[in-house]
Amino acid sequence: MPQDLPPIGGYGPVQYKRNLPVRGFRPSIMLLGVAGIMTFGFWKLGKGIREQNELAREKMWSRIHLIPLLTAEEDRDLVRRHLADQAREKQLLGRETSPYNSDRFVRPTFAVTPNQKSS
Amino acid sequence: MAARKPMFSQTNLVDTTPLPASIPAVTEIGSSSAPLLSASFFIGARCRPYNDDFMQCKTNNPGRGEVECLKEGRRVTRCARSVVEDINKSCLDQFRKHWTCLDNNNQQLWQCRPAEWKLNKCVFEKLQLEKVIPDTPEGEIPVHLRKRQMYAHQRLLGNGPADLDLIKKEGNAKS
């Protein structure tokens, strides 16, 4: 009985490579494209940040121009309330007292209200 | 300044006692935030010395500024009021358009450039007050004069403040 041998002419080639189509651009071109898009994005971002800085400067200066005005108005109101408080105190106690050991102006945290009717 | 206001959960404290007669009265500015923002750079242009005086006084009197700087405060308020009144007299239409626009756009200045340019132009012509943002980097168009506002809903704004360049040239010729 003859031995089991390869066929005459040998076996056909075994396909061990994948045969997939290459799609898209070359990797180098892809890389360049991505770099380009990112460069554009960062450039744009930089411009946006610069503009935001300028807008912030504008806003700050508009506020700076207004702050003395607003502070002056509030100070007047505070002084008015303070003087009224002192006058009331003088009327009730006969003298002016201060809980603070300095003549700094302290914005009142507590205020005396007229007695409320308890229901 | 301790900026803590007296608070009541059950009532508002309203103290209507007026200032004593020894302190001269002054009419308050009586304007809401949008008109003030709209006029702020003009207030700054005219009232800078008064504002600086007031802030200097507050710095020189730490802890007593509220009481000591009433005089400077009155000057500041009077000056700012004069600016707002002058704008009201000469440029009421543009002024009103601009601050209405600011009110409608969350007080974002960059949304209202066209209205602002018109107001700036009018105020410069009538009152000689110019909006200048200090410390703008050299060689850049100041942000309020840029034709293209990056963050505005409507980015491209026609021809931009083309009229303003003209005003500037005239202003330079005058001075």
From TrEMBL, chain A:
Residues 90-119 are annotated as: Disordered. Coiled coil: none annotated. The chain crosses the membrane at residues 25-43. GO terms for cellular component: mitochondrial inner membrane; respiratory chain complex I. Keywords: Electron transport, Membrane, Mitochondrion, Mitochondrion inner membrane, Respiratory chain, Transmembrane, Transmembrane helix, Transport. The keyword Transmembrane applies. InterPro entries: GRIM-19 (IPR009346). It is found in: Mitochondrion inner membrane. The keyword NAD does not apply. It is a single-pass membrane protein. Belongs to the complex I NDUFA13 subunit family. Complex I functions in the transfer of electrons from NADH to the respiratory chain. Accessory subunit of the mitochondrial membrane respiratory chain NADH dehydrogenase (Complex I), that is believed not to be involved in catalysis. This is NADH dehydrogenase [ubiquinone] 1 alpha subcomplex subunit 13. It comes from Calycina marina. The lineage of its organism: Eukaryota, Fungi, Dikarya, Ascomycota, Pezizomycotina.
UniProtKB/TrEMBL annotation, chain B:
Pfam families: CHCH. The keyword Mitochondrion applies. InterPro entries: CHCH, NDUFA8. Keywords: Disulfide bond, Electron transport, Membrane, Mitochondrion, Mitochondrion inner membrane, Repeat, Respiratory chain, Transport. The keyword Mitochondrion applies. One of its GO terms (biological process) is mitochondrial electron transport, NADH to ubiquinone. It is found in: Mitochondrion inner membrane. Residues 91-124 form the CHCH domain. One of its GO terms (cellular component) is mitochondrial inner membrane. It comes from the Eukaryota. Accessory subunit of the mitochondrial membrane respiratory chain NADH dehydrogenase (Complex I), that is believed not to be involved in catalysis. Complex I functions in the transfer of electrons from NADH to the respiratory chain. The immediate electron acceptor for the enzyme is believed to be ubiquinone. Belongs to the complex I NDUFA8 subunit family. This is NADH-ubiquinone oxidoreductase. It comes from Calycina marina. The lineage of its organism: Eukaryota, Fungi, Dikarya, Ascomycota, Pezizomycotina.
